[in-house]
Amino acid sequence: MSLLLYLLRRILQALPVILLIIIGSFLLIKLAPGDTVDALVGDMGGADPAFVARLRQEYGLDQPVLVQLWRYLVKLAQFDLGWSYVYEQPVTKVLASRLWVTLLLMLGALSSAFVVGVALGAFAARRAYSATDNVISTLGLIFYAMPSFFLALLLVLLFSVKLNWLPVGGIRDIGAFHTGWKLWLDIATHLVMPVLALALIYLAFYMRLMRTSVLEVMELDFVRTARAKGAGDARLMFHHIMRNALLPVITLLGLQISTVLGGSVVIETIFSLPGLGQLAYTSVVKRDLNTLMGIIFLCSIIVVLVNILTDLVYAWLDPRIELK
Amino acid sequence: MTDAPILEIQDLRISLPAGGDRPYALEHLDLTVNPGEIVCLVGESGSGKSLAANAVMRLLPEPHVHVSAGRILLDGEDIGAKSESEMRAIRGDRVAMIFQEPMTALNPQKTVGWQIDEVLRLHTDLDRKARRARALEILGDVHIPDPASAYNAYPHQISGGQRQRVMIAMALVLNPRLIIADEPTTALDVTTQKQILHLIKEMQRQHGTGILFITHDFGVVAEIADRIAVLRLGELVESGPAEQILNHPSHPYTRALIAAVPALTPPAHKDLSAAPVVLRAQGLAKTFAARGGLLSGRRQAVTAVRDLSFELRQGETLGVVGESGSGKTTVSRIVTRLLDADRGEVVIGGHDLIHADRRQLRAMRRDIQMIFQDPMASLNPRKRVVDLIAQGPIVHGVPKAEAHARARELLSLVELSPAAAERYPHEFSGGQRQRIGIARAIAMQPKVIVADEPVSALDVSVQAQVLRLLADLRDRLDLSLLFVTHDLRVAAQLCDRIIVMQKGEIVETGPTAQVFADPQHPYTQALLTSIPGRDWQPPKLTDAA
Amino acid sequence: MRNTHGGLWLGASIVALGAALTAQQVAAQDNGAEPRRGGTVFVHMNTEQGVLNPALRASTGVYQITGRFMEPLIDKTYDGYVGVLATEWSSSEDGKAITFKLRDGVRWHDGEAFQCDDVAFSAMELWKPLLNYSSTLQANLESVDCPDPLTAVFNYSEPMPLDLIVAAMPDLGHPVPKHLYEGTDILKNPVNQAPVGTGPFKFQEYERGQYIIGVRNDDYWRGAEYPYLDRVIWRFIPDKAAGAAALEAGELHESGFNGISMADLERLGKDPRFDMGTEGFENNVAHSTVEFNLRNPVLADVKVRQAVYHGLDLDFAINTIMRGFAKPGHGPVPSVGGANYTDDVPVYEYDVEKAKALLDEAGYPAGADGIRFKLRHRPAPWGEYTQLWGEYFAQAMKEIGIQVDLVTNDAPGFLNGVYRDHDFDTANGWHQFRSDPAVSTTVWLRSGAPVGTAWSNQFGYESAEMDSLIDAAAEELDPEKRADLYHQIQRLAMTDLPVIFAIEHPFVGITNKKLVNHHNTPRWDSSSWYDLWIDE
Amino acid sequence: MNAPDIEPAFEPQLSRPSRAAVMWRRFRRNRAAVLGLVLFAAVVLAALLADIIAPGDPLRRVGVPLTAPFVDAATPLGTDQLGRDILAGILHGARISLLIGVVATLISICIGILIGAVSGYFGGWVDDLLMRVTEAFQTIPSFVLLLALVAIFGSTIGNIVIAIGIVSWTAPARMVRAEFMSLRRREFVDAARNLGVGNVSIIFREILPNALPPVIVFASVVMATSILMESALAFLALGDPNFASWGNMIGQGRAVLRTDWYCTVIPGVAILLTVLSFSLLGEGLNDILNPRQKK
């Protein structure tokens, strides 16, 4: 019950933020030169004036901006995200077909970056200032310093073109018409490189933070207590240090979720993954306002949910925090 | 067996990393702990006493800090020759440790039961049920009121005293031969401290355990020690039976330390009823409200101070005494208006500080200055000493050159070299920093100085010097002091009158001598009887001025 | 009723062709093997337009997909125009009535018969009011009569040259099934995304941003052996490098319209697994253009524009940016424009000294820093090569003392900045030629288009002479006279230089050699692929 | 007998080495940080010497397009698709990258400090409001916002820098806020208020200098991400083509990656090394400014 209340309160808390985002982004897009009709005409290679004027009227783009905003908000309040004039589909449908790809990508990248990063970070901290530590830390930094697209291109070159192990792009082998577990296996194969490219960047973050955090926790009194109790190194690490050291890493995980969403733009482009990141970019370029607003709305909700989730995990890890 | 010493430290030397202040943290240390004996290792900060304890557990941060000479024998076995896994079997089983700060010494993420259970799991083959039974039993032994619920509680859910009981339970659960207690009561309130000391003694008597008790507080030493060893900068200066060291110290350092312990004899009562009232507090109240509502969740409202009134007269030192949570610190903040009171007034020089507007407030700040508890935290580390001291006058319109010149004069007034002016706070020791804090306060030529635990973070010997300086300045400059402290010995030393606070209210007030001699309120009585070593009268050592 | 000469000839040849079409004589690249039934072809799509109705969106990006599903009345082959859904066409003497004979026995994918009603509905409800470019072409269309189910008569208020309408039909003459559109909001009709046509493949599935699947139409009018393929799958891969990698990995079979970068085209072209070239794109030649804003007083001086032309090293541009797949332009009509094309126009060869002299003459001497004046240049955001063009332009202009600041924007920003706000000095982009100058080229040079119309006259160029030539050409029925008028237009455009038609280039495609019978018509990527088969 | 010298004289310990020397010693101990400093110095040097080693406009045509490195002495690192000297591009690009890194970081840190300081110092509704705004910015995927800003306002170098600044101020703001929230409870702040020092003065003169060290360390991260962001923008063809930037070089080189790898790889490595140098420097700064007890 208290958990439900907590969730309700968190969601209510998020509403003004989401509203702020919606209004802000709407006005921002409206500041842009050109609208979706211009973009459509650009794709078509031109059109005559009557055609253009008719489209504008059709899409309601001839109205004042504030009227458009008001109409949008009214529709949004009824959970209607509107119509995408670029995809000629309801935005909900456009988003639904993309969301799972991005979620898989993010989940895969973040979880592998998190797990490996935490493990390597803890390992490096145990051997702090040794050669092993230096190698791990430096490799982490190099992956972090490498532009993601550069890394992605190198991966494609190696694994797809040279070795022909992995498909170059897409989310599944369309012509194969796989079903069941074969389909999932196929999707997994397609996600290996994108996930890797995205994960390697974030890996460095988690690794470095975990290393610092473990080093800090190792200095704390209760670790000394545990040692005084006769606990061995492994026990210290797993029962006493790791769990405490995870706290800042969890916080970072929550904070980074939107960054990862953004970072997936480039990755999705390179690997032709039909995800939200690529969609967001296309929507900006095509001024597909409804779709873009839909993405931003959806992202906000994801970010809010993930943040609530990380807070719950945090509270679970740290009994001192009370969910109130 | 019974007479053989549990612990023998022979000619121990602990090396520090190269490039430090000194090459050895500890040198030529000899120490013996016999069964059923409490040996107090006494020293000020930097004496190396905690490292000695860690060396016994072989928990030094090696290789930077390591034992470079001497032997440590536990029941006659050299622990230096043990392998790491043998050491692990010893730790927690034959030797246990109790730390200073029970909050940080317990893993915040594990329940009390889990943490006691861990000791049993590591060193016994008991099954889960048996371990649980043993843990509950030991929790009962250390007088935890409800062992079953404490077993499932997290450390933050129980009080500080209970936490230290849990630590003791954890140390005792396997009946170790030796317990090393590293300042186990320093972080506790006096009344709790008394109970914990009592508990340690009781346990030691029951189990015949040897205890190596590390402390800086001679009051505590007097309370429990069988034998005493005094350390100074890594060297053992004196050791012997408690009675001998406490009453007949021979080494000058020991004598100086003992001389610095404030006596429990308040100064003779000065009659100040004729002196003008410089500060009058009337009906002060402060509640820390539950913030927010829907958007941030509810917190319990806490009443820190309720309906508090007192007067401070010219030249008087008024002590505000109480344990943590009594509201004494809130009083100091309200009176200086660092915190806004909910109700009441504080009248200084005919003006009410609480309701002063921005401009009046700024002018009135001159009249009431503050000396803070933590000499490191209260000085901006990025400012030079001269800027720190001159800052107040400059803010109030004194030309910079003049303010700086005055600041330099003040340095000599607080017995610091003028060269100190150009230095940064981190280059000074704690006592020196507190002198800078004092100089900063008097630079404003205030009518009232509020001192919030000004010596509680300092070593005993330094404490004495700073207290002497304060008393001296008060008399020379005819200052009025509002002196907030938890330490009754310190209060007895300096205060003309005291206010005893409990849970935001004054329970007793009166001239210090009178309160000490004949406390009326049960709480005051409890406080006074809890003063460690109250029965020990530090000897008058003529040579230590 | 009298057929015009060209119309008669064409009509006759089409009848012959139509009769012989079932034979396999078109297989230009036929490797001699027997065509194999079955298989799936994967096609690379660079852009995604969301609308799959060529009668609503005239764009190669749409044809590339819908070409398999929906057929035009007339298509273009290397042998000229051939009937697809029409079998014959002719014009009345006054040029105000055009008659199409329709093919018998053609059925929509849903089983309904294809009839004149469909053509009439499409022309009046879609081609005339809704289809970009077609609106201008069909501006004078008054009605379409159906004297019988297989005859459609288009009635115009002004003479309509048969050449023009025939040339326009492959792109702008796709009928839609009337029974699925009538009485609906045409723009919102879901059939626009799930097309129902008469072509060799039936639409099956469209996953936005990912793929479209077309499956074999077992009831295709050309006969049961067509098409050979079981399936065509289009994959949307906007990233060119990713597209190239997918081709290389064998995940795609074909990419057209410069869907991958020139460097990768060149590289894969050397790979024995691929055919690479401009065959099959002849219908869609484009000009890379440098456009002037004549509202700028500096650029209003024709000498300055000539100097700019002289300053461009077109051979360099052709060889580096276009990798040799291009040639210098000669005005608004490209060399594939047939009779309407002429190279008898003024030319401006690469000559830096001459350029400088012209600028001096125009009164813009070089300053102390070697700079004469500055230009704000907007390169069109149509991918890598317009961007490179912009940077090359800046490079080249610096050589003759003109400082060029590049202003980049995305597509809406660019179109808005150039066509609506005229906020540019120079711009570069490309301009596609659509079979006949009257379809989409002359509108660029004529004055009077409303401000803001993309690919209209953004230069602020106004020439009464040009306007009257354009108007005359649009209504001239005699092909020779028409051609002559277009020659004059080209000469005038090359003299007045409101825009430099710097180089003309067909698009380049790359195809896996497993495909047989590919790129065997001048608009192959937009055609039906009924005879394409895969050898694997 | 005199009182023993318990507190050694009231003299400060004058023999201490100067602050700078201490810092340098701490820094030097971290070998990786020294490597970072060397790399950073190399980048700065490249930027400074660009006009001497490769004078003239780096965007002009100097040779046959797509000359491989080490083939022509005039263009030792080769030329790109338009015959531009890659070496000149790398050297002049160092300026652009540094410019983008430094200015974008300054912008984001300044916004971050302002918002974080006000929010953390005053708390209450001011904090609530500013934190909602911060959350809003943090919730929108920053790269998407960046894309939108640049796409909308045009890819001039100024816009790019400002846009990067706008999307990256939230982390510094939260950091400054957290610092302020803990520092404002410190006794030296109370001491200043007790002396009558005003809010603005307390924020900027008392608290800020103490809150800065972690922010300065974090600035190296912002700097690194700024450069990465610019390169990602350029990769998506949203760079400013009027300047030779590494991102632009990669973006254009990508088209010829498979045939002429050096057009992409050389600027790619330049970015990698520069970002690496910032990260390593950040580590070193961290050692200087937030020293831990342990060696």
UniProtKB/TrEMBL annotation, chain A:
Keywords: Cell membrane, Membrane, Transmembrane, Transmembrane helix, Transport. It comes from the Bacteria. It is found in: Cell membrane. Its main location: membrane. GO terms for biological process: transmembrane transport. It is a multi-pass membrane protein. Belongs to the binding-protein-dependent transport system permease family. PANTHER family: ABC TRANSPORTER PERMEASE PROTEIN, DIPEPTIDE TRANSPORT SYSTEM PERMEASE PROTEIN DPPB-RELATED. This is Peptide/nickel transport system permease protein. The lineage of its organism: Bacteria, Pseudomonadati, Pseudomonadota, Alphaproteobacteria, Rhodobacterales.
Automatic annotation (TrEMBL), chain B:
SMART domains: AAA. It is found in: Cell inner membrane. It is a peripheral membrane protein. SUPFAM superfamilies: P-loop containing nucleoside triphosphate hydrolases (SSF52540). NCBIfam families: PRK10419.1 (NF007739), PRK11308.1 (NF008453). This is Peptide/nickel transport system ATP-binding protein. The keyword 4Fe-4S does not apply. GO terms for cellular component: plasma membrane. Keywords: ATP-binding, Cell membrane, Membrane, Nucleotide-binding, Transport. GO terms for biological process: peptide transport; transmembrane transport. Its main location: membrane. One of its GO terms (molecular function) is ATP hydrolysis activity. It comes from Paracoccus alkenifer. InterPro entries: AAA+_ATPase, ABC_Ni/Peptide_Import, ABC_transporter-like_ATP-bd, ABC_transporter-like_CS, Oligopep_ABC_C, P-loop_NTPase. Belongs to the ABC transporter superfamily. Residues 7-258, 279-528 form the ABC transporter domain. Pfam families: ABC_tran, oligo_HPY.
UniProtKB/TrEMBL annotation, chain C:
Its main location: periplasm. Residues 81-445 form the Solute-binding protein family domain. GO terms for cellular component: ATP-binding cassette (ABC) transporter complex; outer membrane-bounded periplasmic space. One of its GO terms (molecular function) is peptide transmembrane transporter activity. It is found in: Periplasm. Coiled coil: none annotated. One of its GO terms (biological process) is peptide transport. Belongs to the bacterial solute-binding protein 5 family. This is Peptide/nickel transport system substrate-binding protein. It comes from Paracoccus alkenifer.
UniProtKB/TrEMBL annotation, chain D:
Residues 94-282 form the ABC transmembrane type-1 domain. The chain crosses the membrane at residues 32-54, 96-122, 143-171, 215-238, 259-281. It is found in: Cell membrane. Pfam families: BPD_transp_1, OppC_N. GO terms for biological process: peptide transport; protein transport; transmembrane transport. It comes from the Bacteria. Keywords: Cell membrane, Membrane, Peptide transport, Protein transport, Transmembrane, Transmembrane helix, Transport. PROSITE patterns: ABC_TM1 (PS50928). GO terms for cellular component: plasma membrane. It is a multi-pass membrane protein. Belongs to the binding-protein-dependent transport system permease family. PANTHER family: D,D-DIPEPTIDE TRANSPORT SYSTEM PERMEASE PROTEIN DDPC-RELATED, OLIGOPEPTIDE TRANSPORT SYSTEM PERMEASE PROTEIN APPC. This is Peptide/nickel transport system permease protein. It comes from Paracoccus alkenifer.
